[in-house]
Amino acid sequence: MINIDSVMSAIKPFAGSVGKQVIKNAQRNEAVIQVLKSLKLDPTQPPKDVDGVYAYALVEYGVYKPEPILKLFREKEIKNAFWQAYTSRNPLGFLKEVRKFLNWNTLGNEIREAGIEIQTELEEFGRVFIEVAQRTRSSEFQPYPDWNMDEYPEEFKSLIKEKNRFFCGREFVFDAFAQFLKDNPNGYFTVIADPGSGKSTIAAKYVFDHKSPCYFNIRAEGRNRPEQFLESIRQQLIKRYQLQNSEKADLPTLLEKVSKKLLSNERLVIVVDALDEVEQEPGENLLYLPTALPEQVYFLLTRRHYTKETKRLSVSPGVPMQELDLRANEYKDLSHDDVKEYIQLFLNEDYDLKKWIRDRNINDPTFIEQVAQKSENNFMYLRYILPGIARGFYNDLTLNQLPDGLEDCYQQDWVQMGMNTAPKELRVIILFILAEIGTPIPLEMIADIAEQDIYEVEEVLKELIEFLKPQEIDEEICYSIYHASFLDFLKKKRVLDSKRKLFKEVNQRIVDYWERQMA
């Protein structure tokens, strides 16, 4: 049996630090071989027992790693937690145990002070261990687990990251939800707000902080169907809770299985954003959300305001339901404070925005208060107006002339970009193609429908980038409308300008395109 302290002593001279220059592979491999030989281990053939593979993997992983992370893997409690996670094929369980350990152990402070990203290191060690185990050809290590610690679905990673970049405030929302969890054994809690008021950001922040299973309905990307929601949540719950024989289970069955695995102090909170964007046949609950919930199971939902006919969320008697309407008078001042804090954060980060203010002899508090008033507590407004000011889009305007509210912001941008004039007609065509298709589509398809040269279309897409969301799908860059509120604005433009032939032409071009594809 290899003594783990001997392994640590052998690695220690090669310990590195975060930020140290990258070590060349050849140099690192040489150091690994040197350490293995000093421990009397064969550099070409690992031992076949669990302790031996753990020590061998620690050498291959640990050379030039910071000392605090090496200390972590030396701990017997961590080693046991790793093997338990390996045999149960539950890497997220290992991550959870390590976080618990670091919360009380002084090593936690060392790792945080060293700037070590713990999840990244646990993933790397696990993959090295599996590679070493495979070289032993021992059946004791089979089946090899999928050592993936992603806590968010791949499809929502960038969204969650982006929404949290300038997050601030909203404590009153989270406090209300925390109280709901405390007061109720299960239930539905819904945040209701206007478009652009930060519903998705609230959802993303909760997911980021609590690592909750989640689903973000995104109409502009065609990611808003019940079957897509169920498949995503199913895979998340199977992975997190190691559910067996659940590949085809419906949502009530999945929730029941999870509830039986929860400890007395644990809860399952599933976050679902933008119920109003769900595309589903009339009838049952949106996304077929269950009418009854097991104990310790909760949903945090967000949606726009609804009518009695569009609510579509009925529950059994006794299932708690609570709504928090961001438009309510009791929250207006709190939202206004959050908006001002957001503007201050942006102001601190952007030199060009500061210059715009200084050039007009405006002091920061005046700018913050007036823009906050014009925003009407709408964060999407700020997302457009603040970068627009910084880029010089509003250089000809005074502070008082800036648009009022999101709708006015879209309309002013529409006019200032010359969208109503013939020379800018291609911009209008492209936006309405994206609005009509409704899902992300590649450049070539846009150009084909628009009957324009690819280069010209690409240049227009660059000009419209603040309204668009480019993303890679099947190794192609595809484009869609960034936000549902702008999609709504475009569809309203169709009504307002219904006499213009251009909109009918866009629809006909789409029909012609599909006919060509079918031919």
UniProtKB/TrEMBL annotation:
PANTHER family: AMELOGENIN, NACHT DOMAIN-CONTAINING PROTEIN. The keyword Transmembrane does not apply. Residues 176-287 form the Nephrocystin 3-like N-terminal domain. Residues 4-138 form the NACHT N-terminal helical domain. This is NACHT domain protein. It comes from the Bacteria. Keywords: Repeat.
